[in-house]
Design brief:
21% of the residues lie in helices and 30% in strands. By secondary structure, it is an alpha+beta fold. About 7% of the residues have low confidence.
């Protein structure tokens, strides 16, 4: 009997050892119940083509096709300092003529006809503009029109089978919404970064004449200018245009021009070759306590006029320094940015009602805006 139990225990030990070795090295041989503990902790494998939860893969794939890289170059020009080598040395210029300058940026294809939206400062003053598509095709582009006031430009390329970015509605955007920034930062190649909308309606930054920026913490760096800010579905929300930075790199504060503004500029340039905006010839300022006291203004809010162009539309209608504009065509005016936006939206040559506070009186004027003068170009 003792011999039987000894044989039984030895056999059981050998079988358990064999089972352990097999279940460790070949778990499939022992069936699903032989799966080791480590396998139980592993996440289930994704099926081919399945997108992980929370991934922006589909949005990035959809939008990236229509985002292009832009290379620009300027022809060599004689040095304005002439042949004096000491002047050139102390001003950091090379010997001889000034070398041709080059730059880079990004753009967004918004039409199957080949129209590309980008920033004006990306292509301003360029002699040659090359557009590189995501599928590696390269082509020269021509400038259809520019709008320095909004820092937007429209290019045209002649290629077939162009991918096109779908335009979203930036007016529905809310703080906290997820966004992607797509562009060619530092010339390293197309890059996608993710973040959220940090703020809306940013203005008075001194970047453009008309400012209504979307602020985002999605990383934007030099070279991203003119690229796309898209929603979680891969649709265009804005054109990336500027960053706040002390080092030249991203600090998590980037600004994009809303697609609503970009669409107005695009339509104006394509249809008329330029953007038409209203202009009344005044110097507006926010209503500060100092200005209120200086001009004896009693209006609680609005924009105070500190200067009026002689012979301009506002002067012809009777506006004088010290007047406070509180409404334009029924829309309330709270600051200078709002006044500029409302006036710009007026159609030149068509009279519009203005509500003005002059000291203790509320006056109504009809002002016929003129065409806003084009600002002088400047290197940014």
């Amino acid at each position: 009997m003792k011999r039987f139990w000894l044989l039984f225990s030895q056999s059981t030990t050998v079988l358990l050892a064999a089972y352990f070795v097999i279940s460790t090295l070949k778990p499939a041989w022992v069936g699903p119940r032989g799966t080791n503990e480590l396998a139980l902790l592993q996440a289930p494998a994704l099926r081919s083509g399945e997108v992980p939860t929370g991934s922006f893969r589909l949005a990035a794939q959809k939008a990236s096709k229509a985002v292009v890289s832009i290379n620009v170059s300027k022809a060599s020009r004689p040095s304005p300092l002439g042949a004096n080598q000491w002047h050139r040395f102390f001003n950091g210029e090379p010997d001889g003529d000034t070398e041709g300058a080059s730059g880079m940026g990004s753009g967004v294809i918004v039409s199957a006809s080949g129209y590309v939206l980008t920033n004006n400062h990306v292509v301003e003053g360029a002699d040659v503009i090359e557009v590189i598509l995501n599928d590696r095709r390269r082509t020269r582009a021509k400038v259809v029109g520019t709008d320095p006031d909004s820092d937007l430009a429209v290019l045209k390329i002649e290629l077939d089978r162009l991918p096109v970015m779908v335009l979203s509605d930036s007016d529905d955007l809310q703080v906290g919404d997820q966004v992607l920034a797509i562009g060619n930062p530092f010339g390293v190649g197309q890059t996608v970064t993710a973040g959220i909308v940090s703020a809306l309606g940013r203005n008075q930054l001194g970047i453009n004449t008309f400012e209504n920026f979307i602020q985002t913490d999605a990383a934007i760096n030099p070279g991203n200018s003119g690229g796309a800010l898209v929603d979680a579905n891969g649709n265009l929300l804005g054109i990336n245009t500027a960053i706040y930075s002390r080092s030249g790199g991203s600090l998590g504060i980037g600004f994009a021009i809303p697609v609503s503004t970009a669409k107005q500029v695009l339509d104006g340039i394509i249809k008329e070759g330029h953007v038409t905006r209203g202009w009344i010839g005044v110097e507006p300022n926010d209503l500060s306590p100092e200005l209120r006291e200086t001009f004896s203004a009693s209006a609680p809010n609005g924009v105070i006029i500190t200067g009026v162009l002689q012979g301009g539309p506002a002067a012809q209608a009777g506006i004088v320094p010290g007047d406070v504009i509180v409404e334009i065509a029924g829309a309330q005016v709270g600051d200078v940015s709002e006044l500029l936006a409302h006036v710009a939206a007026l159609k030149p040559g068509v009279a519009a009602p203005f509500s003005v506070q002059r000291k203790n009186k509320t006056l109504q004027f009809k002002i016929t805006p003129g065409l806003r003068p084009r600002p002088p170009s400047s290197d940014r």
